[in-house]
Amino acid sequence: MSIDMKQFHQVFFEESFEGLDIMESGLLNMDPGAADPEEINSIFRAAHSIKGGGGTFGFNHISSFTHVMETLLDEMRDGRRQVTTEAMNVLLQSVDVLRDMLTATSDGADHDEERATLQQVELNKILNGEATPSIEGGAESTPVTEDADQHLGWHIVFRPLSHMLRTGNDSLRIIRELDSFGDLKLTCDLSALPLLDEYEAEDSYLSWDIYLHGDISRDTIDEVFSWVDDDCELAIMPLVNEAAQVVETAAATQSPEEKLDLVDKPDDKRAGGDRRANERRKPATAGASSIRVDINKIDTLINMVGELVITQSMLSMLGEDVEDKAGDREERTRDGLEQLERHTRELQESVMQIRMVPISFTFSRFPRLVHDLSSKMGKKIELEMTGENTEVDKTVIEKIGDPLVHLVRNSLDHGLEMPDERIAAGKPETGIVQLNAFHKGGNIVLEIRDDGRGLNRDKILSKAIEKGIVPEDHGLSDRQIYELIFMPGFSTADVVSDVSGRGVGMDVVRRNINELGGGIEIESTPGKGSAIIIRLPLTLAILDGQTVVVGNETYIVPLVSIVESIQVRGDQINRVVGQGETFKLRDEYLPVVRLHEVFDIADPKAKELDEGLLVVVEGEGRNCGLFVDDLLGQQQVVIKSLEANYGKVDGISGATILGDGSVALILDIQGLMRLARDGKLDADIQQIA
């Protein structure tokens, strides 16, 4: 029976990318002067797994490239080679090349062969350099190897565990690989074969007694079995000179169990035998796209489904119990519906938890980014990360990565000073960049903070006046001036670099965050540093909303955007001809957006501002008041995409189906404010906050 190996490819790529993350993180955390042997071992194991998987699935270019990395790491871990900054940098670059190779192979595309070849040359330069003292001893170590002249080959007892075929491994392929090394003789043990009616096609029943004659190193044999060492019972023994024939003859009369037991005896002359029979590996399963879920979340979900089934059974029995009095039946029905509501809400929350993954999936890329850019810019930078285990929806994780990269690059380039400038300002020469994540209310908050020079208020303002973005008699607050950096094409960089300063990106960052239903704001103190604060919903599938009514239409306002709801008096309203309306809320003047005018609703119930309600909302760092007829109530709503089912509508982020079956549109606050501004309902919406 042949097995389609392609079904395991996706798992191989997922595990390989995880291995690359382990390698990169370990290399970045390693101190060349005092490298942790366990850290080197961890990096080596990741490389070894990628190499073995690449060979098993026929990705020989991946296997051969990783083999050179593995060789260098092997010499580091056993003390034959000292860990140096140069070697670590070459290994980091090799991780990048290997990542590109895996990505191309996963996509079915050709990898950059020239780049891989050049990088392999760099690895070989490190390997072929002069030997360095070992880390522990100070004298050069001599690797322990088998003396090929002292033995004629190898005696191998190979017994696959019953599940080995299900892991994508094939005994025949392993035996063929051994046969390519020298003269192979083997016998097959059929004693474990069951009767035909008990035979399972995907179980392994055969085992082999193998004699491989030739000048073959132990490492070569180990490499063949490296991918199955947890899925088989294995003994590898040298055939030593004249004793080889005696060993071969005696072994022919023993069972595989006796052979495996024999090599474990400490006084046995065939020392060096290796047995790996106590561990088991669960067979991997493939999938087009996957997410790892904590087993506790699955258990909770299963329990909730059980409770739901019990409640459904209880309600269905009410119709069959004709002896119940009407009052009793009504009370039991009410209790059952309350249980159903509670269990449905808990089930919903449990299902949503399955999509939640740690923000560390995004944060993990930044140590490497800071390492590379700090070297490139000649700055000393330390990255501090907190809250990496804060969980957020997987869709949010996928979409927030690029905006965060842009913001961190800006902080490194514009925010932090050069070492001599920091020392002159009385600061440590090493700048600090902090990445923080935490839950607040129904949101996740991400902060990018630095202890650099802060934003240059005067420079931003002069650029804005020069570009005609704001008038000279602007009257803007510091916060509003800082907000100008999010204008399209705005930049204060004197020199254009490949890190930042081309005036593209910050407006896209804000737009992308707004599309996720979030917001972004800036804090800055001259000479002390600045912070970018991002607030995002925990999930994009469900939101808490406030239902509002305008005329005969019902809309949902995201609860996270609402500051407060008020009823205004006539003396609080200011009207400017041709420029719309504002109302005074405490010491602040806020623009008014009349929803019935934005959405062209012909017959609103409230036409004057003192007849309806103003819902004060925040968007794009500004506040405004949405004028509505009335508020209904708050509820959780399931978001349905309009773009997927109809088309993009300005000022609307989606739709939902209410309990009575009607459809309510979900307002996009940022888009609504832009729509109102473009419609000339409020010309000052950008400048009044």
What features would you describe in this structure?
The C terminus is likely disordered. The protein is an alpha+beta fold and 689 residues long. The chain is 39% helix and 22% strand. The longest helix is centred in the middle third of the chain and has 29 residues. The chain has five domains: 123 residues, HPT domain (Four Helix Bundle (Hemerythrin (Met), subunit A)); 116 residues, Alpha-Beta Plaits (2-Layer Sandwich), CATH 3.30.70; 60 residues; 180 residues, Histidine kinase-like ATPase, C-terminal domain (Heat Shock Protein 90), CATH 3.30.565.10; 137 residues, OB fold (Dihydrolipoamide Acetyltransferase, E2P) (Beta Barrel). It contains 21 helices and 22 strands.
Question: Which structural traits does this protein have?
Answer:
689 residues, alpha+beta, Four Helix Bundle (Hemerythrin (Met), subunit A), Alpha-Beta Plaits, six-stranded mixed β-sheet, five-stranded mixed β-sheet, 22% strand, flat, disordered C terminus
